[in-house]
Amino acid sequence: MSALRAFSSLKGVAARQAPLRFQAARSYASQAKTLKERLAEIIPEKQAEVKEFKKAYGNKVLGEVTVDQAYGGMRGIKGLVWEGSVLDAEEGIRFRGLSIPECQKALPAAVAGGEPLPESLFWLLVTGEVPTDEQVKGLSAEWAARAAIPEFVEELIDRCPKTLHPMSQFSLAVNALQHESLFAKAYSEGIHKSQYWDPTFEDTMNLIAKLPNIAGRIYRNVYKDGKVASIEADKDYSYNFSKVLGFEGNSDFVELMRLYLTIHSDHEGGNVSAHTTHLVGSALSDPYLSFAAGLNGLAGPLHGLANQEVLRWTLKLKDSIGIDASEEQIKKYLWDTLNGGQVVPGYGHAVLRKTDPRYTAQREFALKHLPDDPLFGLVSKLYHIIPGVLTEHGKTKNPWPNVDAHSGVLLQYYGLTEQDYYTVLFGVSRALGVTAQLIADRALGMPLERPKSYSTAHLKKMFGAN
């Protein structure tokens, strides 16, 4: 399996032998290489690894496809390669083989905090290696140095009406950044395909670096006074993002952003935003166009928008039966919801069959930083009640909470109450995972994605149906 995850091995040590892998990865500390320098060393090794694996195992069957899967949104079909993360139905997401608790333990954090810095996770996603503190500090500085957005993009955002949804503005601004794409320029000038990864890397670095200024400007324009603070060159990504939002004075909120941006970054390749970014990128669209397409998918209520949908449902429950409602009252409310043909949002997942570890990470953050918050208390009650009701109801394969069941409560507590903006936060985070994969796609020479499709009439003919 290690060769299937071409970028996931840390010096060939098994994925779950985390302490040994951490030690091996940190051996690069003395070299103090930049991310691009280290990536340039890794790419030839991984290209050879994938080539050798495909030659030996290319005709092996990964799985079969049923008619139900074809009609059911390709659910569960094994047909993608995604290097940064793999989602296990029982244990949840692993970033390059590391679980969320392992990432929290191993990845460099801010001096005054404990949660991993998103910069450190991006390094891990791109290289498969745990970076050193020095390497992460260098990446923070590089992103800060690239953070300025063109004046015409600032004007474009400023001219948007406040009634235009924040995600529409976000996608619009990212598309506009394509004006500066180094990949598009290099491709038009005839760059050799073996070097596609280089301008893709540069576009990705520029894109990620500029997202806080874009997202912050949208937030300040739509909900505040339109004034956007400047990026600080010696601060980390999450601090600067919090600053442009206007929350840099609250160190706990900054720490929440570090956690939020890390755990929402990647969830393997089959979800809508990840797959869309990969699909559009397979046509050799540059990272700006590819990520903008992924953002449009993330904006859907069955994907990133679910974050705010859960919070709205929770607040409606609170308003209906009270924040101190008893277990009996909550159960009745749940059954009324289910018997009314509605779902309980935030519970269940297309792949997971246990509590989402991203939910658990946020719950532990809340227990540490806001244990007495009444809304968190209500969410905790729901955590202990809803799975039993859904199990008894019998129509939910996974009755346990997913990441969306918790994040809105944390944001509300710290004063970021504008629910329509929550998906923008998700988008800033998701950029880390999907663009890391774009770099891998170009490095490994992944082709245009073009699956075969059939009509219902043709399927009926294939199986002799009338």
From TrEMBL:
UniProt xrefs under Pfam families: Citrate_synt
UniProt GO BP: carbohydrate metabolic process; citrate metabolic process; tricarboxylic acid cycle
Family named by the database record: Belongs to the citrate synthase family.
Active-site residues annotated for this sequence: H303, H349, D404
GO CC annotation: mitochondrial matrix
Superkingdom assignment: Eukaryota
Listed name of the protein: Citrate synthase
Coiled-coil stretches: none
Keywords in alphabetical order: Transferase
